[in-house]
Prior knowledge:
- This protein is of the alpha+beta class.
- The chain is built from 10 helices and 6 strands, in the order H-H-E-H-E-H-H-E-E-E-H-H-H-H-E-H.
- The chain has helices at residues 19-22, 31-56, 97-100, 127-134, 152-157, 193-196, 235-244, 261-264, 268-276, 329-344, and strands spanning 65-67, 105-107, 165-171, 176-181, 184-189, 310-313.
- The strands form 2 sheets. The protein has a 4-stranded antiparallel sheet with strand order 3-4-5-6. A two-stranded antiparallel sheet has the order 1-2.
- The radius of gyration is 22 Å and the shape is globular.
- The model is unreliable at 209-235, 244-257 and 278-287 (pLDDT under 50).
Amino acid sequence: MAHQAVHSGNPVTPLEAPWKYVEKMAHIKDPNRRLYAGMLSALDESVGNITRALQERGMLNNTIIVFSTDNGGPANGFDMNDANNWPLRGLKATLWEGGVRGTGFIWSPLLEKSGYTSQHLLHVTDWLPTLLHAAGFNMSQLPKDLDGSDQWTAISRNVDSERTEILLNIDQREKSFAIRSGDMKLVFAKGGYTRQFLDWYPPDQVVNIFSRPESNFSAEACLGCDRAIKFWKNQDELKILERRMAKTYRMDNSSGRHSSPELYRTNVYQSVYKMEQQGRRHRSQNPLVVRCGPPPPEALTNCKPWLKPCLYNITADPCEFYNLADDQEAVVETLRERVKLYEKGSLPPHNSTIDDAGLPYRHNGVWVPWRNISDEATAGNKLPLLF
């Protein structure tokens, strides 16, 4: 079921929900956030209706319910929405964790083990082989070069996963890429939203801890964007936030660098080596809740992804506070080589500009094909490669 909630609608009324759902959210002061919560409540009821229908028809005991998302939320007014990914960095359409890490759950009596938080690295392409396996499909009939990995055994039993690496994206138009291998993630972006939205965008409940300077984003670049929420500046209010954090970090006063040995741990080499040997390795454990501790003063300035790639240990630093690229040059080079290898087998993006001729008002109010793009199919291939 591809639910449209909680997507934005048209520019006139981007967020809408029946009043019976919105009125339950009277405790939420921000009107857009209140509407968003109402939309989410309607979505929740819809999932409940589906579950109830399966139960009434005696089908629930042989059902796997997967609730997931295609990307992080459009926070900070992006897409005229009021979603939130905090404390993760960035938003929808970026390569930061707030854009690429999706929430979700699996419920099924068919799971051999349940009631746990999965630590498996999983990509959207994994769902096809995973659910086919669960349904009893003959897995030997699948193509050998399938992008996705079968994760059913790993998820059902909470055992080691086959996947240790994810290519998050390569975009020759924006000149950007990101890759996750084991604990480590490499991000580079000369342009695009990853460069534009590299901040942390908090919910309204803690917005007073942040400053909100005037936005420097143009309407063309970000339709409906609110003013950018920048970083903590009021140290007294920051102390309030710190007390809410269950996990704190120590800083080396002489260098300003993070002193936690967990931050510098890497299993990139083992992951790459074992993949090349057709082996796999389960990544290290993440905490149950995303807790990042207070940010270091240089969190917003220690990474300039348009100048050179930034490196993060996502297991130890899920909020991408600490850029390790200067200290881990060998890891950076290893991951760059992995991206280079992926790019050799990739096709450049073939995005077209908005064409007024395709809008529904020109076709009796419906979306229909309106162009023959066979002559344009190779247009994207003219873009220069990143490597």
